[in-house]
Amino acid sequence: MTERLQKIFSAAGIASRRKSEQLISDGRVQVNGKTASLGDQADPDQDVITLDGNPVIAQAKLYLALNKPPGYVTTLDDPQKRPTVMDMIDVPSRVFPVGRLDIETEGLLLFTNDGDFAERAAHPRYEVEKTYVAHLEDPLPQAVLEQMSRGIRLSDGLAKGSNMLFLTRDHTVVELTIHDGRNRIVRRMFEAMGDPAVSLKRIRVGPVVLGDLQPGKWRNLTSDELQKMGT
User: Fold this and answer.
1) Packing angle between helix 115-122 and helix 17-25, nearest 10 degrees?
2) I need a surface site. Which of 25, 113, 133, 144 has the fewest CB within 10 A?
3) What are the residue ranges of CATH 3.30.70.1560 in the chain?
4) Would you call 212 a catalytic residue per the annotation?
């Protein structure tokens, strides 16, 4: 059955459909030895499809959830030879992390080889909620919590949390939800308010909840979670 090349590339875990369009536009894709154009279709069971001369082979789609411990970088390979999140994932197919958590942030991190799923989960326009628990250096005044809920100005624009609440009476542990995917956004929000996070854990991405998954362990996403994520 013929399909658009963008869909075939996404199914093969190579790139999202949008990024696949760029690969095609750049002249890096060939079908049966002929350079492909945007809008071209092919049959992955019958046609020879290559990217930079390498065959494109479809993979079974994988969707994983990891409880990332602190001290691991979110990258496929680290030039500084630090531990990476890939050290904890053991599956036969190539997967990649969806978004990122900074080296000291722990908690829920998704992995997949489905480019479309990764884009839906991470791109700001889809507004997938992400919930964090922050342990702070000092008690956070109620007025500051309310200000963060309304929005605070950072160097790269406005940032705000929703559903913000204190989890302890001393106001040093805060839960908040964001729709933003900017780098270190939650840490920068608390730093901007003069109360840095001592530790930070992500406990939810959309319908996927960290639950009792142990640090360093991973699981497959459930069919219900995938359905709610539009997969």
Assistant:
1) 120
2) 25
3) 129-205
4) no
Catalytic residue among 43, 102, 138, 156: 102
| Range in 4-18, 24-38, 49-63, 81-95 the model is least confident about | 4-18
Residue 127, pLDDT score: 84
CATH code, 63-123+212-228:
3.30.70.580
Residue 13, sorted as left (phi over 0), alpha (psi -120 to 50) or beta, turns out to be left
Inform me whether the pLDDT recorded for 231 exceeds 80. no
pLDDT of res. 44: 82
- Choosing among 3.30.70.600, 3.90.79.10, 3.10.290.10, 2.40.50.180, the CATH entry for 3-55 is 3.10.290.10
- pTM (2 d.p.): 0.79
The domain over range 129-205 is classified in CATH as 3.30.70.1560 = yes
Report the relative pairing of strands 130-136 and 173-178 from DSSP bridges: antiparallel
Percentage of the chain lying above the pLDDT 70 cut: 100
